[in-house]
Specification:
- The complex is a heterotrimer of chains A (327), B (301) and C (444).
- Chain A is α+β, with helices and mostly antiparallel strands.
- Chain A has a single domain, classed as Alpha-Beta Plaits (2-Layer Sandwich).
- Chain A contains eleven helices and 13 strands.
- In chain A, the strands form five sheets. Chain A has a five-stranded mixed β-sheet with strand order 12-11-10-3-13. Chain A has a two-stranded antiparallel sheet with strand order 1-2. Chain A has a two-stranded antiparallel sheet with strand order 4-5.
- In chain A, strand 6 and strand 7 form a beta hairpin.
- Chain A is globular, with a radius of gyration of 21 Å.
- Among the domains of chain B are: 112 residues, Immunoglobulin-like; 97 residues, Sandwich (Immunoglobulin-like).
- Helices cover 23% and strands 43% of the residues of chain B.
- Chain C has two domains: 261 residues, no CATH class; 147 residues.
- In chain C, helix 9 packs antiparallel against helix 13 and helix 12 runs antiparallel to helix 13.
- The two termini of chain C are 19 Å apart.
- The chains are: A alpha+beta (327), B alpha+beta (301), C mainly alpha (444).
């Protein structure tokens, strides 16, 4: 803690400078209100979940929210899902300075995709650039590469890349050879090893765009939530991040948003030194990172989680040091 | 053991009683634990219709993050002038606690001598939830957005004025305005300034891609203004410089169709091998036939 | 005809091998059947519960199954390679080993692909490979290569069997059940060993043998590409294809030597399988162990010397977690055979076989070290993963299926030996015929 304090005072000046920079960003940003105003009617998300409501006579009631797909006729079938949303090219920008491993993105994604506690499309890594630098939290979704090695090696075309840049899996086509998993250098894919009761949930027709219901013996991964994009909404992770770490948008219109602020993609990555992880592999990811400069949170804040989650970081080299700092 | 037996009916009845108790207590305290947030706003939309919106949400007094919408509450929207009350309409709150009423462009309002309209939203109140009233006093203004190229400079001009009942336009004195453009997921602010004497001019950026046709949808917005409420205006124009990123086909192995040479090589290899299998099998058949002939004419051997 | 009598003589000599099922043999078959049954049970469990009951998880997605797959297929390809080459030789000693090699070739190409099937999550959708093929995928290449190779090996094996079937057919006094005699008659396709037939058969066998060599190289290269075409550190290596070929040959020769030893001992074939065979096989094994050692060293040395980010993690884990396996696979598994085989005094049948066993075991471990540690060390360090998903430990399901695979191989081998003499009778006849002809030429 002491260590952090001394560091903090050292970076005060830079923080001040950054505030100036931030305010210049906010000039360009923040018109979410307008978008709220222009939509009439309400829409609820997530399926099979209950929301609490107060009735006028003061009672608390629980009602089921409607399905993700409000319009069943608008279901995107596996064949349709291969085409993509016309004239779009989706891109994600993750601001590492703002990430404190709050894990809301992970939870939001799990809820949205009916995943179990341990199944994560989004993983939060603790990375360190060099041994002289402090590590930082690094949310890692699927990078939806422009040259995806996973798609190249698929023997049945179960995984495919669409015109809007999204790489999806059709779990009705997947034979479970796992070759895509070994050829993904970012370990973005997961396998349904066993059978779970919710796999047989037929209340919602399967679409590769939602990946619900899942199927045993097939591969799954982060899908950029095209079902939400079609409704003009942010992916679950970007929606649920309290810090606005995850920006998402269309590269063609050059606009990305984290829900709070909306900025030009090109400007954001040019001004803030955006980069792609392991660029030299040549996979051309569509996920960009903004370097963890002028961190907004002490690193150990990301360890305020229950034991089971901390267990998942057991093998990380600097984790013990960090845990000591936290306590 | 004996004591246990004694305790059983007692404990059970206690638990049962407790269940009933907590239930009834819970019903009483459900709403009382929450502070009701009753927010009223009005938005004048691009077609000059007016949207009235109430957000009715209970916030837990202890845990501020715990917010519960009030569902199915009837909200009355009134237009009040002194003692006159004109009911504009009623609406019930949705599962998100939002009640809306859309008033047409030609809706007539009661206005005071300065042209102000009093809009009031009212929840009558029940035993559990108190009456809620919220009012907005605004002037009805018209917002105009024009996009023009003047001397090869792309410009946007925003005008704001009130129209009295004789059709006379009076420019407004001052109001902050935000200029934004439409994005797929949200809108992006590109400029902001102040409308002075009914006018605000701005230079339009030249490098906005717009949508696939190069069309940009521009919004001018007055937000939460004390005198005017929320006013939105929108215009679309083909000023975009959209160019779909040209795919560089350095390696398209991931695409559906494989490179031609792969098909050729594979075909040659397979044809070669399988032709040989066929050749072998044909020869085996020949051996078979030769053998058969031998059985028929053994002397040949 | 002198040769016809010789044929009868040979059949008589080998008839005990074909006729009797000794109690020991029955016990042996029984044990194998039990092992296979356990494996089948494990397979049923795997189908029922899914891959969750294997040790494979999200990071190490391939385990024992893939290792066994490349191991068996490697043996098969090397068998094809060797039997193809042996076909060119006109020496009498080759007759003692060709059949062993050919049988090994076919059986391991049957058993190997079964393991890749075990690794597939949705066996019920296997036919998608054919209805939605993607030519770019190395898996597609591999499927095509394996099927083609399997059929080619079958045809080749059958070609070499035909003259022996004919000989067995022509000896009706063998004490075997009637159905077997009928089967011999059917399989011999009226082969009467006439000059024309002989020439024809020889022609197609010779073409097939060349084809099989080429196919072995292509197919095993494709298999190596499944690994080396990915971006994973430790796999993405140009040396992988040749390394796999050499490794396959290495293990193949090892297995052949072991098989020769067992067959020689069990069937008392000391007359046919002589020390020379072992010494020659040993010499081949020596060359291959040197080559294999050289390839392995080059691969790891380059990784160690240039220590790229991804490689460092892999080597780190090889030198710590997998230290003993690494030592056994890449030092003992290569150096012991080299030492034994390069010192003349040590070149006894037993020691050569021992060297072969070491070589085969070391090579299997080498394959393990290629597959598992690499998957445990991807580019992005494994974090935010439940601890039980990080490392791979094979479960009893995988082990029992592994042993069931080996047992199937052995069982089929045993049955084939009981069906066709393990020493090619026609080969011996051909040889003697040639000798006769040479003599005739000399006397004329």
């Amino acid at each position: 803690m002491e260590n952090y304090k001394s560091k903090k005072s050292g970076t005060d000046r830079r923080k001040f400078l950054k505030l100036g920079l931030m305010s210049s960003v906010t000039i360009v940003a923040g018109s979410s209100l307008i978008s709220n105003l222009s939509t009439i009617g309400d829409d609820t998300k997530t399926s099979g979940e209950k929301v609490r409501l107060l009735t006028p006579d003061g009672k608390m009631v629980e009602v089921a929210t409607e399905n993700i797909n409000k319009y069943p006729e608008a279901l995107i079938t596996p064949a349709e899902s291969r085409k993509g949303i016309p004239d779009r090219k989706f891109v994600m920008v993750i601001d590492l300075a703002k990430c404190k491993n709050a894990r809301k993105c992970v939870e939001g994604c799990q809820k949205g995709h009916n995943l179990e506690y341990h199944e994560e499309f989004m993983k939060i890594q603790l990375l360190q650039n060099t041994e002289n630098e402090e590590p930082y939290w690094f949310p890692k979704p699927c990078f939806h590469c422009d040259e995806p090695p996973c798609v190249t090696v698929c023997p049945t075309g179960a995984t495919f890349k669409r015109d809007d840049g999204i790489v999806l899996i059709d779990n009705e086509r997947c034979i479970g050879c796992k070759f895509c998993m070994t050829s993904c250098p970012y370990s973005a894919r997961e396998f349904n090893w066993g059978s779970e009761p919710e796999f047989n949930d037929k209340t919602q027709p399967y679409s590769p765009e939602t990946q619900v219901p899942r199927a045993e013996g097939t591969v799954m991964k982060c899908d950029f939530c095209p079902d939400l994009l079609r409704q003009g909404k942010l992916p679950y992770c970007a929606q649920s991040c309290p810090m606005g770490v995850i920006y998402f948008g269309d590269k063609n219109e050059d606009i990305v948003t984290n829900g709070d602020e909306t900025v030009r993609f090109s400007q954001l990555i040019n001004d803030r030194g955006g980069y792609r992880y392991l660029e030299y592999l040549g996979t051309k990811p569509n996920v960009y990172y903004l370097p963890p400069v002028n961190r907004q949170f002490p690193l150990e804040r990301g360890l305020n989680h229950d034991k089971e989650i901390l267990e998942r970081y057991r093998n990380v080299p600097y984790i013990d040091e960090l845990l000591n700092k936290k306590n | 053991m004996k004591r246990n037996l004694f305790q059983y009916p007692f404990i059970i009845s206690f638990i049962v009683a407790l269940c009933f108790c907590t239930n009834s207590i819970a019903q009483k305290t459900d709403a009382s634990n929450y502070r009701m947030r009753f927010k009223f706003k009005t938005i004048k939309q691009k077609d000059n219709s007016r949207l009235l919106e109430v957000s009715f949400i209970g916030q837990n007094k202890k845990n501020r993050k715990d917010k519960v919408p009030v569902y199915n509450a009837e909200i009355e929207f009134l237009n009040i002038l002194n003692e006159d009350k004109k009911l504009l309409g009623t609406s019930k709150t949705s599962k998100k606690g939002i009640a809306q009423l859309l008033l047409p462009k030609n809706q007539s309002y009661l206005t005071d001598e300065n042209g102000y309209i009093n809009l009031t939203a009212k929840f009558k109140g029940t035993n559990a939830i108190d009456e809620k009233v919220s009012e907005i006093i605004i002037k009805d203004i018209t917002l105009e957005l024009n996009l023009k190229e003047i001397d090869s400079v792309k410009k946007g001009i925003v005008k704001a004025y009130t129209i009295d009942r004789f059709g006379v336009k009076t420019p407004i004195e001052e109001a902050d305005v935000i200029i934004s453009i439409k994005g797929m997921l949200s809108n992006m602010k590109i400029n902001e300034g102040t409308i002075k004497n009914g006018k605000f001019e701005f230079e339009f950026p030249t490098d906005i891609p717009g949508n696939a046709n190069g069309t940009i949808t521009v919004y001018s917005t007055i937000e939460y203004n004390e005198d005017f409420g929320n006013v939105v205006q929108e215009k679309s124009i083909k000023w975009g410089v959209f160019n779909k990123k040209i795919k560089d086909n350095s390696n398209t192995l991931w695409s559906e169709v494989a490179p031609l040479w792969m098909y050729i090589v594979l075909t040659i290899l397979l044809l070669g091998v399988w032709a040989n299998y066929l050749f072998t099998i044909i020869n085996l058949l020949k051996i078979y036939r030769e053998g058969k002939n031998l059985i028929i004419n053994p002397e040949e051997q | 005809m002198d040769l016809n009598n010789r044929k009868k003589e040979l059949v008589k000599e080998f008839s005990p091998m074909l006729e009797k099922f000794s109690p020991a043999l029955k016990l042996w078959i029984g044990v194998l059947v039990v092992v296979i049954t356990i494996g089948l049970y494990a397979f049923v469990l795997q189908v029922k519960h899914g891959h969750i009951i294997t040790g494979m998880r999200d990071n190490v997605v391939w385990g024992l199954y893939i290792i066994n797959f490349i191991f068996f297929v490697g043996i098969s390809y090397s068998g094809a390679f060797i039997s193809g080459i042996l076909h060119f030789f006109k020496t009498p000693w080759k007759n003692s080993v060709t059949r062993i090699v050919e049988i090994i070739t076919v059986l391991s190409i049957i058993v190997g692909p079964v393991f890749i099937l075990l690794c597939i999550g949705r066996l019920d959708r296997l036919y998608y490979l054919f209805i939605y093929p993607r030519i770019q995928s190395p898996i597609t290449w591999d499927i095509i290569a394996i099927i083609t190779d399997l059929i080619g090996c079958f045809i080749y094996l059958y070609l070499t069997f035909i003259p022996d079937f004919a000989i067995l057919r022509d000896n009706p006094d063998l004490k075997i059940p009637n159905w077997r005699k009928k089967l011999y008659r059917f399989l011999a396709i009226n082969y009467k060993d006439t000059k024309a037939q002989r020439a024809r058969l020889h022609k197609i066998t010779s073409i097939m043998s060349k084809m099989i060599i080429a196919m072995a190289i292509v197919a095993y290269t494709v298999l190596a590409w499944i690994f080396s075409l990915t971006l994973q550190p430790g796999w993405n290596s140009t040396i992988f294809a040749p390394d796999f070929i050499v490794a396959g040959l290495y293990s193949g020769v090892g297995v052949i030597l072991i098989a020769m030893f067992i067959i020689r001992k069990y069937f008392k074939l000391e007359k046919y399988i002589i020390k020379l065979h072992f010494v020659l096989g040993g010499a081949v094994l020596l060359v291959l162990s040197l080559l294999f050692g050289y390839f392995t060293f080059s691969d790891y040395f380059a990784k160690w010397f240039s220590h790229k980010m991804g490689d460092v993690g892999l080597l780190q884990s090889l030198f710590t977690k997998y230290f003993w396996q690494f030592i056994f696979a890449n030092y003992i598994g290569i150096l012991i055979p080299i030492i034994i085989l390069s010192i003349k005094k040590l070149r006894t049948i037993k020691l050569i076989t021992f060297a072969a066993i070491i070589a085969v075991a070391g090579l299997w471990l080498n394959r393990y070290l290629i597959v598992v540690p690499t998957l445990e060390n991807p580019y992005v360090p494994i974090q935010d993963t439940r601890p039980e998903y990080i490392h791979y430990t094979a479960t009893w399901i995988e082990w029992s299926l592994t042993f069931a695979g080996i047992a199937t191989f052995l069982l089929l081998f045993t049955l084939i030996i009981k069906f066709v003499p393990i020493i090619s009778m026609s080969g011996i006849i051909d040889n003697e015929r040639e000798l006769q002809n040479d003599k005739l030429k000399l006397t004329n």
